[in-house]
Amino acid sequence: MNDILDLPAERDLPPEAALAMRARILGSVRPPAARSPRLRIAVAATVLLAVASGAAAVVWDQPERSTGQVLAMGAGELSPTLRDAAKRCLGWNSPQRQTRQDPAERPVPVSLADLAVATERGDRALVLFMNDAGYATCDVEWAGTARESGGGATEPWPHGEWLPGPVQRLLLTSTESDGGDVSVSGRVSGRVHRLVLDHGDGHTTAARLSGGAFGLLTDDARLRAANDPELVSYDAEGTEIDRRPLFQAEDELEHCYAGPDGKRIYGKPTSGCRPAEKWRG
Asked: Among 259, 265, 261, 225, which residue's Cα sits nearest to residue 245?
């Protein structure tokens, strides 16, 4: 077996970065396989877009494969390439396919009507579908072409509408083992009116928020895990309310979070848990 494409030891890489890097390497040297690479980050166990409730805004008058960022917040606003990415994500995360791949998993049935946020930049796209049962989200590269690659995740909500503080990440992929460019999706509580990625080197990237969800794509960011990039949340007055490491898993959060009954539902089993926050979707 040729091991040229094997990545360094797992302990040296963020798990999601290793999967994303391998998928992109494979996608660049051969046509995508019938089964797409699966880039999954579980909500409750590891590292992290949503329902738009009738939101209607779109900025995609650029030509296809433009270097500018394209944003859609509903199925009727999709550019041709975003529509291809959304359809591919639905196919990858269909209950029938997920059950065949891992009968132990509980896939969430979603449709194009559940699309919350879709964003693309150049050849990369990020889409998220959410409903009351759970979510499905995908990172897709070169959607609708022979070079198409990527993967996604689907999961029922582990604790319903309760979040580990103001922000919950659902999918995080990166182009390099220690950063590069990232695609991030998740949901936010009602307190969050602005969310940015602080690169840790003096640069930032703003996330797109819609109906309690967010999507974020960086472009030539050259992120480095060593710089401790963080997701930073702000309230309506512009006051910072939360700051957490981008590559940190939910079970490694600095604080634990408890539900309305006082029982811990997120984070390490420590005392003095902060209250979980309600999703505003």
From this structure: 225
